[in-house]
Design brief:
Length: 256
């Protein structure tokens, strides 16, 4: 066997070992946050979903590709408007089933009644009522968009927001805090922090499992390591879950 072929096999084995370590670390990070984010004393929460895709966009996927997890995928997130903590997230489709599981997961992490704001997506209405019942101050914020002129300069520009409409669904939410600004800003942070969320690039996820592992690592870093610009501490510190800024070494030490 030639020396070059042996070297190639060693490189492949090392890459496989590193991939397994990353998977093990992401799983550990997900489990750690799952145990840490309980009895949270949040007051105001905002929820939203962010789109991405695995392998190819849904319109370009064959049935065989979709069976392996390829196509459009949505990440559901909740953020505490005060501490900027992301207490839970869910990777799945944008449908009633995922809305149901996401809202029940969120409710199980809270210690008290909260004010909740979501967009005007209908599955939220049923999912929030099923998970929270009447024990929530819930409002929907519906944004009204206008179509931009179809010119070469505006082809990839977002639609123009013409206004918003607020609707109280249950309880007595404070109208000045009916907003999804923080969770939408968090969506932008995700797109800027992870190349697999950046549009019009070839950095998209190739496997659904890898997409989920990347998110687990991202949220661990965001919650425990990244100092929030306005808070000057990490979201985990502001929430009282941690007493210091975590280093990347500390995250890796979770494996031991």
């Amino acid at each position: 066997m030639c020396r070059g072929h042996c070297w190639s096999q060693l490189v492949d084995l090392e890459l496989q070992r590193q991939e397994l370590e990353v998977i093990r670390l992401s799983t550990t990070c997900s489990e750690y946050q799952d145990k840490a984010f309980v009895n949270l004393k949040c007051k105001r929460l905002q929820c939203d979903e962010i789109w991405s895709f695995v392998g190819a966009k849904a319109k370009n996927c064959s049935a065989e590709m979709k069976a392996k997890g390829a196509g459009d995928v949505w990440t559901w997130t909740a953020i505490d408007a005060e501490t900027k903590l992301i207490p839970c997230w869910l990777v799945g489709q944008r449908d009633a089933g995922c809305a149901y599981h996401f809202m029940h997961d969120l409710k199980a992490r809270l210690a008290n009644k909260v004010q909740l704001t979501t967009e005007g997506y209908k599955p939220y209405f049923v999912a929030v009522e099923d998970a929270f019942g009447a024990n929530v101050d819930y409002a929907m914020l519906q944004k009204i968009y206008g179509k931009a002129k179809d010119t070469p300069e505006t082809r990839y520009s977002p639609a123009i927001c013409m206004g918003t409409k607020r609707a109280v669904v249950s309880g007595s939410p404070d109208h000045k805090h009916i907003s999804t600004s923080y969770v939408e800003r968090q969506n932008l942070t995700m797109r800027m922090s992870m190349r697999r969320f950046t549009r019009l690039t070839n950095g998209f996820s190739k496997k659904l499992e890898n997409h989920e592992h990347a998110l687990a690592l991202y949220f661990m870093y965001y919650n425990f390591c990244r100092i929030h610009q306005s808070l000057r501490v990490t979201p985990a510190m502001e929430s009282g879950i941690s007493d210091h800024v975590w280093s990347l070494d500390e995250i890796i030490q979770l494996l031991h």
